[in-house]
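stuck on this:

***
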Amino acid sequence: MSHNVEDKSFVRRLAVDLEIQGAACWLDEAEMEIGDSLFEKIGNAISEVDYLAVILSPNSTQSRWVNKELEIALSREISGKYIKILPILYKDCTLPPFLAAKLYADFRNAKSYDEKFEQLIKSIGLAFNKNAHFSRRPTGNLGRAIDGAMRMSLPILASPFHRPFQYMGMTIDKVAEITKHQPNRVGNIIIDDENCHMLLESEGNFISSVSADLKKSAPQYLTRPFDSEPALGSLSISLAELELARKQTHCHTYYDHRRRLKITVLCYEDGGPLCVNFTSKYYMM
């Protein structure tokens, strides 16, 4: 999603809604790591996607980086490599000449957001899930979750830790290819860095559960209440995607009805970090 930082709140909302409908989104705040080459990372991301959504506003049309992203995508489109540019008009602005002939999604009127979003979903070949779209709104949003993580000094984790439920149900070989980490002798994959320790547990030839220890959230205590929203935000997950099932001092349990997952955020021991667990085995139990 090509955008200017001043339009970030709208972009975050759109990204969450797209993810809920089953469209994976690349956002710089979720995918960039300290030390990454900005140009190289953006170029690689564009080479791997099917669509480039360009958020059009006075801020973005004057942005050097947005124009650079468009340049990369247009050169790929012209050379015959499949990529479709999706102009999304967020605020009144002068459209770049090379986008003027393209049909754009008009999000300028906030009251028609849902209607325009449904049209956008259908334009990329997905079936619009009305129940998932409207049921995700009662509490929270991704922007608030990410802001909460930052206030707690929790890093916004990039791949392979970004939205780790994506690995559920994948084959071990596929996850090993994506994460570039090999399974151990029992078929589990462990990924560890200074911010997170993640265990992808297998059952047969498939990943059946995922647990992520957020190291920078320590120390936590069994008898001290905590806020699970920043922990989920660190993994780029919004409370709006989940239903709170149970809340105890040391453990918060959620259900992700769209993906049919049980998600728990908990403290295992005094002084330890918060851990986020994902499983399909105990969904609605």
